[in-house]
Amino acid sequence: MKITKIVSASLALMLGWGGTAFAQDEVDALRYTRYGLTGSARIQGIGGAQTALGADVSTMASNPAGLGMFRRSEFSITPGLGFSTSTGRVGGISTNDERNNVAVPHIGFVFADRQSDENSDWRGATFGISFSRLNNFNNRTSYRNTAGGQDPTIVEYFTELANLRGRTQTDLDNEFNNGYTSMEGLAYGTFLFDFDEDGFAIPTDRIGNVNQSEEIIRRGSQNQIDIAGGTSYRDKMYLGASLGVITSDFRQERIFRETEEDASTDFTSLELRDEYRTRGTGVNLKLGIIVRPSDVIRLGASIQTPTLYNFNETYQRSMYSQFLPGENYSAVELPGEFSYKLTTPFRASGGVAFFIQKYGFIAADIEYVDYANARFSESDDFGGNSTYFNSVNDRISGTYQSALNFRLGAEARYEVFRFRAGYAITGDPYRNADFDGKINTFTLGTGIRLNRYYADVAFTSSTANSLYSPYNFNDPSVFVPVVDIEDKLNTVMLTFGYNF
């Protein structure tokens, strides 16, 4: 299959086998910039549309001006259960993987100090702290494919790496004797290619069909702690600000295998394992305003500064091969660790909420993010490899574009009961791609409100599609397997709240 415009940054799946120690690329930039739905079960039940709504603990992570609407202090906690399903399709073969995850995606405290004098222009101050899960990285993807006897496979890819980088038998022998530091070194050490008399790398002989399979296992999450304050001016205008501290922990293990059953060649199988873990901390600032010109309508807006991250990454790769008659080889790369910085784009949101007397409301949000503005940079101890980050940042600019995220939701009220529904579209971040990069999310929810207590439950269902190739050749016309991946995430969450 010819691959033309398949974007390597296919929803955080593509971290190529490129042999360089530096794993940062446009995929990482998108992973830490593109968020899922956040907040309490009430907010997620209405599709996350809360920029103009206010008076919910979740408002600290979206528009802190909503804190100014609180008249009482409040505490809430939201446990949740996530069910992720990934389907990989290639060559007419479909493979399904499922993974479940239990978490607490939101906790919040609000401390309201309402002025007793209602004649005062400023009606007191409200402070809060909240914990929100921005991204759930837990997912497992797998696929199976059969490459014909004439089709190049990952062995030819390793061979091309060695030739393009000008590797010689002498320097690869040096890796063999002193420790592996490259992907082509691992392949050479497991006898997947050799050199001809002219010094060019040539792949090991394979004649029959080659069965390919891969598992990609991801774990971790991205979470934000907000420390916020808000106030009210005559209960007509609400102002707020919050300091956000984001922590991220992402782990990925990839296991790629090839097997050949033709007895006329010595090659039997190979296995490549790539494991790495990235942990980081970032800081941002949010400012927000909500205006209530009447009891029927509220208008809201918020901005978030770029998030400044510091990341630390550890990694290791290994290769295993088998040949007839029963020969086994292994090579393990020297473990690596390094640090770097990432600046994510500025974000801006606007929203409107319409209230239908005591019967409920309809809310809508729009958010702007320019994914092309994400930038990597060196940490203080990185070692000065600015050329590498320049090329990565150029790829970010060329791969991504600005996008609009839309959220729409409604709540109906009957006595103490609440009924909710919502829909959210996370806009396509890709400039040119052979797939629609939007993420569609449908939500439902219900709840009950008492004088001092409340409980809400919500169900969200998100679907995203991407294309993925485990390796690519320098010549884009060369056949590579292309996997059509559909990821689904269903989440059930329950919020318990107490007013005091």
UniProtKB/TrEMBL annotation:
SUPFAM superfamilies linked to this entry: Porins
Key words of the record: Signal
Recorded superkingdom: Bacteria
Signal peptide: 1-23
Official protein name in the record: Outer membrane protein transport protein (OMPP1/FadL/TodX)
Annotated organism of origin: Pontibacter lucknowensis
Higher taxonomy: Bacteria, Pseudomonadati, Bacteroidota, Cytophagia, Cytophagales
